[in-house]
Batch of 2 targets.
Target 1
Amino acid sequence: MSLNPFRASALHPATWWFLGLGLATVASLSGGWLPEVLVITVAIALMLTCRENAPWSKSVRFYLWLGAFVVGVRLLFRIIFNSGSTDSVVAFSLVELNLGGVHLLGQVSWLTLEAAATDGLRLAAIIISIGMANTLANPKRLLKSTPGALYEVATAMTVAINLAPQLIESLQRVRKARSLRGRSKGISSLNSIVIPALEDTIEQSLGLAASMDARGFGRRGSLTKMQIIATRTLSLGGILLIAFATYFLLATQSQMIAIAFMISGICSLTLTIRIASARNLRTRYRRQKPGIKDLFVIGLTVAVAALVVAF
Amino acid sequence: MIEFRSVVFGYQRAESPIISRATFTLRAGEFTLVCGPTGSGKSTLLKLMNGLAPHFTGGELSGKILIDGKDVTGYKPHELAELVGYVNQQPEGSFVADTVGEELAYGLEQLGFTPTDMEHRIAKNAALVGIEHLLDKPLASLSGGQQQRVAIAAAMAAGQRVLALDEPTSALDATSAAELVALLARLAKEQGITVLLAEHRLERVLEHIDSVIVVNGDSSVVKSAPRDAFKDYRLLPPVVELSQRLGLEPVALSIEEAKRAIATPVTFTRLPGRVFGEQTLLVEELVVRYGNHVAISDVSLNAQAGEVVALMGANGSGKSTMLWAIQGTGARSGGAISGPDNTLVPQRAADLLFLNTLAEELAESDKFNKVEQGQTAKLFLELSNRTDPKQHPRDLSAGQQLALVLAVQLVKGAPLILLDEPTRGLDYEAKRHLVAAIRLMQENGRTVLVASHDIEFVAQIANRVYVLEEGEITAQGRTEEILGPTGLMPTQVAQIANQPGLLLAEQVGKREN
């Protein structure tokens, strides 16, 4: 398979998620608007250069609008619920309203605006970073890398991801068709467009489910009694350990105990998944393994995040 | 290979079963056509093969189904996955993976084949259906015919001995459909796979099949040899109808057979010439571009009042784009269109229906178009048979849905009618209704522009034909020229008789016996 260096498929899908979450972390930890703008720029640049012509890659514009919307709302709220600090350079003045002790509008300073914009940009950067991962990571390839025990859950998620664009397509098609006929007043667009499109999508997903079943999806081997006992004990134990770890972390000073509990909890959950995967008869075709490029990207992400935390 | 012993299947609520008393056997390597009117239970019969009925459809099953000597009654689909491969009408809706190779691998992964074995089987099956050069391609980039080949290869990759296919050719143009059926015939013959194929357009498959299972409207299921199946069958493919009209015994099933058996020239009546009204539609040098892709380049056409004009060509040749541009809401990048008010019936006619009962749909149409109450219902009755007004529009057959949408659109009274691929999913009976409806529109002086790749259908209705190829008109002329023996797309009867002016079996008088 040829992997174009500027195509999303050049990296393992999990790497894209790692990078996306890394960028989101950087965005949420750093202060000031410049880092946020940089994160947004990087995420947008990656989306635009690497995305492929796939159904899950078509919502770039949606993430950008959502980001812009968040910044806009943030600014608007700050202007409306302005606490009225007057010690800095005033950007503009609005008529101040006093509603029973609550001050609205009034003088807006540059500092207030900057703070609001930075807050908004931080949220926008997180949204766009996650959006980038969603746009570039092929959910079907990601599914191939999930452990067998989680396969059913992962499949359900993949089907859901695939259905969203189908629903949009159905909506567009039905709306276009509907305009050919017209409708009387009193028939809502919910009834006449949304419901048929939903019906259409549900029909399609049932069709997909039938086709998957017909090809053997849902087969499983059986676990021995010992294995069943082991998975139940380990999973319950793992969850308890993580709960304790959270308690120690939040309520006490004993961070070392918390970390020890956390690690053993994660280990026992991993073991559960390992054992439960044994009943899986499924095999994988051309499973994509993380390569040098993936390690490089992951390393770089960790380094940048560490730098941001350190300073 | 497959044995049905008095199988009965039905839904509790319905009074009569969908399938009753089905008893038949199919041997290994037998290629069987499953036919019958729409809604008769063809799909259900196929779904019984691998447990999709009753497990996905609901309903109750009694009797016994044996596959390869094993009683599989009540088995779940995934338990039968290595025995029976199933392919449905819309492959794009059932694809699980992104690329061809991964799609072929999906079933093998579920059944636990080792990676080396997988590679081997994928290569072998891809070569069998002729898609070995496409293994790395994304599924979305393939043509409809290629996608169906992928679906077939995926359905037999694990070495399934039975293939059940539910109208796999319904969205394909004539050439791709013919190739697909020939492929299935080869798989049955050379690989010994038992193939069950549900299909409306009998003319596409007759010459290849070994046997026919007719699922009748009254739920009875009868298996017979192809020659006997159509003796008292009302829905006839052109070859059979022609040989019956000429009194051939036994009837011919393929064009080659008919050519040998029928003495030409045949006496026939010419199709009546028509006088049309004034020119109503004029399209001049129409251009439609999507980004860099030119969908329609410099197409000019015209139509007169009372004329039926057909746009023909393979899938993706630009037929739908033309209709939407003429309708007015489709994209248009250049050229001029002048025409009267029009009304379009899109490919998926059911998209126009949105109410809960047939009666409500009819009433809403009267109300919206401000016509006398009952007008739409009257039109609907002209186009279809009597139907329970309380039925949900989604439960109507494809033919009834089309009739309803036609009634809703025709009541608007527009002088220009645009039909996009109206025969998709229709059986012979419904098609006959549609032909009558179009002839009626013509009588009333309306202009009909129809996009279709159904040659036999176009031959019955059109006065003139334009052939589109990759957005350009490559041929145009009277129907007798384009669909005649020396034309670009001859009808079956034209190919057999090879006489100018003879296109349809109905032109040949019935011989008295």
Target 2
Amino acid sequence: MSRRFMQGSEAIAEAAIAAGCRFFAGYPMTPFTELLEHFAAKLPAEGGVCVNAESELEAIGMAWGAVATGARAATGSTGQGLSLMQESISELVRAELPLVLFNLARGQGDYYQATRGGGHGDYRHLVLAPVDLTEAVQLTQLAFDRAECWRNPVLVYGDYLLAHTAEAVAIEPVAFDPLPSKDWAVDGSRSGSGSPRNLNPIGMVPGKKGIEPERFWKRLQAKHEAMAAAEARWEAESTDDAELLVVAFGSVARFTRFAVRELRAEGARVGHFRPVTLWPFPSEALAEAARGVKRVAVLEQNAGQMIDDVRLALEGRVKVVAIGGISSDDAGFGVGPMLEPERIRARVGAALAGREVQP
Amino acid sequence: MSDEVLRSDRPPESGATRTGEFKPTLQLGTDHDLCAGCGEPLALRTILESIEELGLAQRTIGVIGIGCYTALTSLMDLDLIQALHGRAPSLATGAKRMLPDRLFFTLQGDGDMANEGLQEVIHAAARGENITCVLLNNGVFGETGGHMTATTVLGQRTKNTLEGRDATQHGYPIQMVDLLAPLGGTAYAARGSVHDASGVVKTKVMMRRAFETQMRGEGFSIVEILTMCPTGWFVPTAKGPGYLNEVLGAVHVTGEWKRDGRLLRGAEPEAPNEAKERGAV
Amino acid sequence: MSQRGHVVIDIERCKGCELCIPACPPQVLRMTGEHNRIGAHYPELLSGCTGCRACWLVCPDFCFEVWQFDEPGAPGARPGE
């Protein structure tokens, strides 16, 4: 397939449509807005629907209804809009509906939101964090596949750089294994049959009074444990003899990876580890990659969120230092001066030398 | 009238026709946990019977809000999507856009639709979404035990307006059908009441018209149904219908408010032949 | 009295709300002093039912099944013992 020069937002919309997404609803917000624009422009020609929702609350509600019919559906926003959607996300997990969500965020301050969530109760969903457009095209398609495989929402977490950077990219279709049938989807065909479907988040069964919350929650817990065991994805390089292991995710990892490669080429014993899934966090793989290193340096563009998962993964065996921090442009979109390659390189270099890095 | 007590534990042995079954065909059973004297099961019956009579049983999907009526879903022989409190119109929107030839209705209470979900239903109506929203309005949060909602009438006592709803403190009630009827996307709007048999029959006429409006693709339809909540009103069950008609009904006026896209503002729906024939009233 | 209609009452489903009593135009429903399994009083049927379905329409607990006699004046349900 030929490559085209396009923005991340356009590539993600095209990848979603290639994956069979036929419904999208959204509410404009920078830097998510262009994703909505591209779905609005492209979906009708594919027989799909894009609704300009009047709020993020309504956007996720509409997408919830669409996905309940068995259609592939998605919604999204920027972190703030995702905050409004949290109640629905936690309920979608419990209703076991495979909605795909996009957070094109302002920086990386939504790591906790993405992995812990602001919703209620025990719930988990996959979080995929693409490093660049090529990977975003793959992970967007993977998101729809994994969502249906597990009957669970999946979040694709990108940022301003991913949404707005234009690169030459091909929308290569990814082949996946066959999925289970969608006999859970409501289409009205089981109405009047005596055994209708009821897609609900509390374990209600048609024809039966009451619910069994404990049994229902435990079943979901078991599913989420199976997801955690099966779905961790990561990228590790130059870890074999590394003294310092740099950990970063998303667009920021593109900068750290570049700096690590440069330093490696100059002979520095530095490795790089990038979680592709933020949930499940690739804890075992990180522990393996960090075996023998003197220090692990976490560079994230926030006040320190993923570093918790890094520390949990390493269980105190290795010193973990923060070398990232809050860094933003004046508009607050998270395109900060810290992301200049020479500054990133300087921070990694300082960590390598055992010096403290001021956030 | 005579004091002669008849056996009522079995049907006549012969020479009689059953004209009213215990439950509608689309109802899975009759056992439910709603309170004595509740009006919501009566509203459910009008919905299920209308779907059956219009021959839409295998094409209907309900989107259910959160309130006491959520417990009635165990009785519904319908494909259902359970929504969050207030969000049913959005779910119905997304689902209907994917399956435009199916009948979609939402079932919401006044807390669900007029409080938490007011924006959702207004936007769905303004967009002219081809769905039917059903509002069960009893003027209280019944499930929490009788608290003020946005439709609670002035003077009405609730657990958080102990001296009665006072406009200076709690504001004024919202009349949902009056609010939604004038919107351009609204094709049908009516308010019924199940305080007596005649009200139930008229409510069912409204329900059928709303569903027919949707199946003709004319746009948004709303049927508000005033329902008794003696538990939440702190009145004896036998006084529920009178309280509903005289207290809530005085503010939330019954009748058709919009039909075929024309504003009517509370006209009485003429009784359909079918109801006359059955001599229900 | 000749019977035009008849109702079967599922007394075990009744919650004793009494909505059927004033709803009945010929006033042939009356609350008993008996209790069902959940402890609620329930209605009994007196003669003179017209089969109009008013009780059926207002019963929140789906306790009524309504019958109409094919010929008015048919013997219908036997009086209780």
